[in-house]
Structure formats: C-alpha cells, structure tokens
Amino acid sequence: RKEVEQDPGPFNVPEGATVAFNCTYSNSASQSFFWYRQDCRKEPKLLMSVYSSGNEDGRFTAQLNRASQYISLLIRDSKLSDSATYLCVGRSMDSNYQLIWGAGTKLIIKP
Amino acid sequence: NAGVTQTPKFQVLKTGQSMTLQCAQDMNHEYMSWYRQDPGMGLRLIHYSVGAGITDQGEVPNGYNVSRSTTEDFPLRLLSAAPSQTSVYFCASSPGQLQFFGPGTRLTVL
Questions:
Q1: Which chain A residue's Cα is nearest to B42?
Q2: b/e per residue, B16-28, with b = 16+ CB within 10 A?
Q3: DSSP 3-state assignment of A43?
Q4: pLDDT of A19-49, one tens digit each?
C-alpha cells in the first residue's frame, strides 16, 4: 500500500458546488498532515495544515480521521480559480520526519 | 524577499552529460531539500540538508550529488544524466513544518 494515496481524478465540478476528496495514509505517514495546492506547471503551495480536531479556512475545511486513517478536504462554493491539483502530505514517523506526498487529485471547476 | 529561486527553468541534456541545478533562498531557513516530480507519482525526496555543511540522502538519491556550503545555496548535481532522470525538479526550504518551493526546473534527458 502506498503511504499516502489519493484518487487522481479529475473531479469535474460546476462553479458554486461543494466538492470533497479524501486521502488515505499508512501508519508510517501519520505524524501530521497538510494539503498543498499545485497549479498547472507551477510549484506546490501550502493550502492548509490539518489538525486533529478539524479546521476551517474560509471555504476550505480539512478533517482528520485517525481511526480510518484518512484526511479530507471540503471546498464550498467552488470558484473557477479553485481548479488545480490538490496534494495530500503526511509527515513520516520513520524517516527523520520527512514529508510523504500523495500524487494529487485534479480538480476542474466548470462555469 | 525573492523566496526560493531555481535556475535554469528548462534544460535539455544528452545521456551522459553532467550539470548542476541551482537553488537559493533568502529566508535564512536551515532546512533545504530537493524533490523530483513525475507524472502519477508524489514528490520524491532526492537529498536534503539541515544546515550548512550537513546533507543526507532522501528516497531516490542515486545519480545525484548535493553540497551545502552556505545557508542560502543548495545545488543539485547530476553526475551522468540518464533518460530516467527526465523530470521536474523542485527545491524547497523550510523553517520547520512548512515547505516553500522554488518554481522548478524541467529537465529532459535524451
């Protein structure tokens, strides 16, 4: 099993809709978690950290479910500018706390 | 602040050639790292450094060398380029948990 696994998509979603995607992780990638956003042919940029109690930043909500070993990202009232690839990242408990990256979920918001 | 800068943005090499990818940051971060990104795969760590004079191997170090003589600079050297090293290379620096990435270098090895 990959250490951090994501549905590659693409998710095609109409503007204004709510979209959610999950990321599953293995035990070795379970120290802490983040969501990064990557636009086409650009570098990844931090979207938000994921806290155990769940956290919200504007239209974005991140949740962590340790029992089922997944994290989720919910985007409400989606905008055209939300179109990007969303990368799920876990911090390894083994390899010097290195980051372990999922391959990303591609989101396309359609007008 | 320029943040993290990388040069070149694009490079084409022939098999067997060597080259150095440059990375610099002006945020005084101790931790710097190099990743490669290939289609359908997550970012994979090549080498990292926790401070000047200290480097260590990541997940996929073979075929690459690094050095860290200053806090600001962390160059990545390809010793003898192979087609399998065709990829997008990202340099990152970090003050702690979060990573700040450079714009990337797109490398093609023919």
A1: A103
A2: eeeeebebbbeee
A3: coil
A4: 999 999 987 667 789 999 999 999 999 999 9
> How far does A13 lie from chain B, in Å, by closest CA?
21
For residues B4-8, average pLDDT: 97
Question: How many residues appear in chain B?
Answer: 110
**H or E, element range at A52:** none
Residue corresponding to tokens 């359908």: B40
Cα separations (Å) of A35 from A71, B23, B42, B94, B99?
Answer: 9, 24, 13, 16, 12
H/E run at residue A56? strand A55-57
A51 at interface of B, judged by CB pairs closer than 8 A: no
Distance between CA atoms of residues B68 and B55, nearest Å: 7
Judged by CB atoms closer than 8 Å, whether chains meet at A87 and B42 is answered as yes
Higher per-residue confidence, B39 vs A94: B39
Alpha-carbon gap, residue B45 to A99, rounded angstroms: 8
The two structure tokens encoding residue B66: 């690094």
